Amino acid sequence: MKNLVIVESPAKAKTIEKFLGKDFSVLSSYGHIRDLQKHGFSIDVDDDFKPIYEIPDDKKELVKKLKKAAKEADTVWLASDEDREGEAIAWHLAEVLDLDPSTTKRIVFHEITKPAILDAIEHPRTIDIDRVNAQQARRVLDRIVGFELSPVLWKKIKPSLSAGRVQSVAVRLICERENEIAEFCPEPFFRLTGIFSLPSHSQSFKAELSRRLPNSEESRSFLEICKNASFRVSDVTVKPTKRSPFPPYTTSTLQQDASRKLGFSVNQTMMIAQKLYEDGKITYMRTDSTNLSDMALRDISEEIKSSLGEKFLKIRRYHTNSKGAQEAHEAIRPTYISSRSIEGSPQEKRLYELIWKRAVSSQMADAEIEKTNVEITVTGSSDTFKAEGEVVTFEGFLKVWKTENARDREFVELPPINTGDALEAEEITATQRFSQAPARYSEASLVKKMEDLGIGRPSTYAPTISTIQARDYVKRGEKEGVKRDYSILSLKNGVISEDILSENTGSEKGKLVPTDVGMIVNKFLTEYFPDILDYNFTARVEEKFDDIAEGKLGWQNEISDFYGNFHPNIEEINSLRMERKVGERLLGNHPENGKPVYVKIGRFGPVVQIGDAADEEKPLFASLRGDQSVTSITLDEALKLFELPRTVGEFEDKPIVAAIGKFGPYIKHGSMFVSIPKDLSPQGITIEEAENLIKAKREEEANRLIKSFSEMPGLEVLNGRYGAYLAYKPEGARKAVNYRIPKTTDASSLTFEEAKKLMESQNATAARKSSAKSSTKAAAKTTAKKAKK
C-alpha cells in the first residue's frame, strides 16, 4: 500500500475514498484512539502535570489494525478535523502508531469535495504542537476541576454529583435567571391602539398611543375624551432606509436559527450538520468565523448574477468579533452553491436550505425600504397616536432571505396619507398588559449568552448543554404556565365596553429550568468556589487556551498556576465542618410525634425526612413530586407525601402497593419490586400504569439472560441497558461483579474460555488503575505539602 489516509469517522472515510485513486487507502480512527485514563486522576503533578493516557479496551483491536496498515504504507496522511480536537487526534495517532510528529504529513480541509481533498494532498503540513497543547491544557484543566471538585460535592451535598469548569458556569447562568424571575413583580399597564381610516380610502391602519397608561381609570377617561374627539394627521415623515443581510453562519448562529426557525435542539442541529459535512454537502460545522473563501465568493456571485441579475449582487467580507475567532477558518456554507436542494432526510433538507439561503443572501444587495411615520392628534388631549409603515422599494437580499418571524418582521403598508388629513376612528382599544419577567433561556439563547461572555468555543456549546441536562442540574420545562386575567376596554360606535379575558403566563415549555439539585450545587459553588464560577475567569481561561494554540504561552505553566491556587482551596473547603448537608432545610416538627421534619437533596433526588439518623427509630423518607421544590415546600405539603404506602388496586388476584423506599418510589406486586419512573408518582400512579410497569419488567427479565456456564456457577451473560455484559456472582456473595463484553464480540456464542480471558484481562486492568490511583493521590498530597511550604 502506497498511501494510508486516517480520518475520524467512517462516513467521512467513505466520501474521501471516492476522490482518491487506487494508490490510497482511507481508514477511520472512530474519534480519539487515546485519552486520559477513565479512572483515577491520570495527571502526574510532579512531572510537570504530564497527562497519563491510555488506549480504551474497545479501541485496542482498531489500534492493532491501524498499526499494521501504517507499517505497510509508504506514506501516512493524518486527516482528522481542522480544529484543536482534530489536531490532538492526529498527534495521538502519530504517537500510538510510532510516527514522527515532526515529519508525518498532516492535511486539513474545510469541506469534503474532490478539489479540496486534492488541494490538501498537494499542501500537507506537520502536526501543530501548539494547537495540540491547547487541547491538552483544556483536557487537563477540566480533569483537575472535575476530579478534585466533584468529591467535595459528594461530601457536602450528595453522592454521584459532578462539577465541570464550563458546565458549572452554564448552570450558574440558568440559576441566576431563575432567581431573577422569582424576584420579579409584574407591573400592570394599558396599551392603547386605534384602527383609523381616511374617509376617502377603504384601507384602515393601526396606530398606537405614544405613551402607556398606568391603570383602567385613566384608560377609561381617555376613551371618554375620544368619544367626541376628532383625529387629524399632524405630521408625516417619509425617509428611505436600508436593511443589510446577516453574515453567513457560524456554529453559534446556526444553532440559534435552527432552534428559532426549525425547532431543532442544539445537539440535533450539530448531528445533522455533521452528517451534511461528512457527505460533502456543507463546509466544516464547528467554526466561529464568518469569513468566506475567494472561491466561495466567486461561486455565490455567479449564482446570484445568473438567477437574479447583477443589481442583486454585493460582495461583502465579514469579520468575526467573537473572542478567539479563527479567521483562517470559513463560515458554514454549502460546498456546491449551485445545489439549492439536496437528497436526504427532511431534517437534513431543511437545515441545508437554511444554510444555503444564509450564505447566498449574505452576498446580496441591501433591501431598500421607504419608511413612513405618521403622528395623529386628538382634540381635547395632549396625547398623540403614532403609526409606522414600510414599503419595500427594492427587495435585495430579501428575495432569498424571506421574512419568517418576529426578527424578520413583516412590512406594513399605510394608505396614502398627508399632513392635515382628517381621520375616522373605527375602534380604539385599551388592553391591559404586564411588564415581562426576564425570559428563561432556551438552548439557543444560552449558546448566544455563552458566546457573548466568551465562555466555551464552537466545539463545546452542544456538549455542555447536553451534559447539564444529562446530569439533572437542568431540565427542559414542561409547565404550561398559569392563567391570568386581563382587561380590555373598547370604544366602538360611541360605546365603551369592557371584557375580562384570560391568558397563559410563565410557561416553561421547552425552556431550560434548573432542578433543585442544580440550584443547590450552584449556590454552594458560587459561595465557596467563586473563581471557578466567575464568568470573567472562565472567559480568561478560554483566551489563554487561544494564546497556547498560537504558541504565546506554555501550557504547563498555566496549569501549575491554576493548581497552586485551586488545590489548597479544595482542601480547605473539604475540611470545613457543616452541621447539615448543603441545601437541607428544617420545615418544623411533626404534629404528632414532635420529630423534626427536613427537606434536603437525598441520594436519589429531593426528599423529605422525618426524624434524625441518630434516633432510635430509623428516619422516614418521602420523595418530592415533580412540581414541588426544596426551596418552597411547606410542612403541610411535606407531611402529605407520607400518606403511603397505598394500595393502587389488584392485578392477577394480588394487590399492587405503591410506596417510597431507600432507592426512591416503587410498586410491589407479590415478590416483585418495580421502580416508578420520574414522570409518575406513587401518590398518583393508576392501576393501568402499574400493570404496564409490571409487564415491562417481566419482559425485561425474560430477555435478560443470554447464557450461563456450567463450568462456573454464578457466571452469566446478561442483556443490559448498554448491551451485553458478563456478571459473576459466586455463591454467598452479596453482589455480582460485572465485566464488559466488546461490541465486536457475539455475546450469544461466547465460550467459557473467552469469558475467562475477558475477566482476567479486566481484573488486571482494574488492579493497575487502583495502584495508579493510589500513587497519584500520594503524589498530589506531596505536591500540596510543597505548595504550602
Describe what this molecule looks like in 3D.
It is a single chain. The chain has 789 residues and is of the alpha+beta class. It has 20 helices and 30 strands. The strands form 8 sheets. Strands 9-10-13-12-11-14 form a 6-stranded antiparallel barrel. Helix 3 crosses helix 5 (129-156) and helix 5 (129-156) packs parallel to helix 17. It is globular and about 100 Å long.
Put the structure in a nutshell.
This protein is α+β, with helices and mostly antiparallel strands and 789 residues long. The protein is globular.
Structural class: alpha+beta
What would you call the shape? globular
* Gyration radius from CA atoms, angstroms: 33 Å
Count of individual helical segments:
20
Poorly predicted runs are: none
Mean pLDDT: 88
Annotation, overall tally of beta strands: 30
Helix content: 25-40%
Could you tell me the strand content as a percent range? 15-25%
Straight-line N-to-C gap: 58 Å
Strand order of the largest sheet: 9-10-13-12-11-14
Biggest β-sheet: count, sense, barrel? Answer: 6 strands, antiparallel, barrel
